[in-house]
């Protein structure tokens, strides 16, 4: 038994479920040292090409985005238009917020009561995440009442969310156009704006059980696309060619990954790839993720026929993901919606 003090009390919860050892969890423990022998450099795309006056440069940049989305499901972007000053401010404010006591974070209603930690549905170590987060709807980011004593966070969050929203729409327009659709038509049928999207502040505390537990369990994202700003600690891994590969941090780049909805919308042209975060035994890891999500009643349908997936609403998809997580301990996702 571990019985360690922690903020949040992750170790105490781990003690309660650590006696349950599933085959999948044991395999993770045995393979954690060897499954990722090297860091992998994700496709790196300079987004200056998208704003070039040269038609060929714009087309070349768009092709790189499409190729990375199809072959990797992940890529990095530089010259993305979000200042390093803003990213640094966000990181400082984020660390200050997470340094608050557990009781303060969990009971005072901060950021629309969006605080969460661990995995409430976990019944064994293989589906428990050693992490904490604030998962904040964009509709609440400008609400001063959500911030309490962390008033300086509001201005940074407002600017950060607006910048991420702009970047996400730019990338989405490339992917939508490649599917022979107009972005204007896509936005009419799929509402992805301030009323539907989220920003998630993540902290992965140093974990003395790093060989036994994930910082964030393997999963795919249930959105159209995600933009991630991570620190230099590392720990992000993704599935490539049926193997886990570690992503080497790049201080100048943001990471973009395709979500389940773009995979379904593109009829599997774009790939929503399973990924995870490995716990670190010595240092905390911080990241901020922006999620491009539609309204719950938005209809998700493949743009090509014959369609691999049946039509479904985002609300239906979310409900099924939550139902599976409660019943079987993990997300199933798109396979539930195959024709």
UniProtKB/TrEMBL annotation:
Q: Where is the Fe2OG dioxygenase domain?
A: 193-294
**Which UniProt keywords are present, listed alphabetically?**
Iron, Metal-binding, Oxidoreductase
A UniProt-annotated Pfam family: DIOX_N
InterPro entries on file: DIOX_N, IPNS-like_FE2OG_OXY, IPNS-like_sf, Iron_ascorbate_oxido_reductase, Oxoglu/Fe-dep_dioxygenase_dom
- Asked whether the UniProt record includes Calcium among its keywords, one would answer no
Please give the PANTHER family that the UniProt record associates with this protein.
Answer: 2-OXOGLUTARATE (2OG) AND FE(II)-DEPENDENT OXYGENASE SUPERFAMILY PROTEIN-RELATED
Q: Which family does it belong to?
A: Belongs to the iron/ascorbate-dependent oxidoreductase family.
What's the protein here called? Fe2OG dioxygenase domain-containing protein
UniProt organism field: Rehmannia glutinosa
């Amino acid at each position: 038994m571990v019985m360690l003090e922690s903020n949040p009390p992750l170790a105490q919860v781990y003690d309660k479920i650590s006696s349950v050892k599933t085959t999948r969890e044991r395999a993770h423990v045995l393979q954690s040292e060897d499954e990722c022998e090297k860091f992998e450099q994700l496709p790196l795309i300079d987004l200056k090409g998208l704003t070039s006056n040269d038609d060929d440069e714009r087309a070349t940049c768009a092709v790189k985005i499409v190729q990375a989305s199809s072959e990797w499901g992940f890529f990095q972007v530089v010259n993305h238009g979000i200042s390093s000053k803003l990213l640094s401010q966000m990181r400082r404010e984020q660390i200050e917020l997470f340094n608050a006591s557990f009781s303060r974070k969990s009971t005072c209603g901060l950021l629309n009561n969006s605080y969460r930690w661990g995995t409430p549905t976990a019944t064994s170590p293989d589906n428990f995440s050693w992490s904490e987060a604030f998962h904040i709807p964009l509709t609440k980011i400008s609400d001063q009442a959500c911030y309490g004593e962390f008033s300086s966070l509001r201005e940074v969050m407002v600017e950060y969310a607006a910048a991420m929203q702009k970047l996400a729409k730019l990338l989405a327009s490339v992917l939508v156009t490649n599917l022979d659709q107009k972005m204007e038509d896509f936005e009419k049928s799929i509402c992805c704006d301030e009323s539907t999207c989220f920003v998630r502040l993540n902290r992965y505390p140093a974990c003395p059980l790093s060989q036994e537990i994930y910082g964030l369990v393997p999963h795919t994202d249930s959105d159209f696309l995600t933009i991630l700003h991570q620190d230099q600690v590392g720990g992000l891994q993704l599935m490539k060619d049926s193997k886990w590969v570690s992503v080497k941090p790049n201080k100048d780049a943001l990471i973009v990954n395709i979500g389940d909805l773009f995979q379904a919308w593109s009829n599997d042209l774009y790939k929503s790839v399973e990924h995870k975060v490995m716990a670190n035994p010595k240092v905390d890891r911080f990241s901020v993720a922006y999620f491009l999500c539609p309204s719950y009643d938005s209809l998700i349908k493949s743009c090509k026929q014959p369609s691999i997936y049946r039509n479904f609403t985002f609300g239906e998809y979310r409900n099924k993901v939550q139902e599976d997580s409660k019943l079987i301990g993990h997300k199933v996702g798109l396979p539930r919606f195959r024709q």
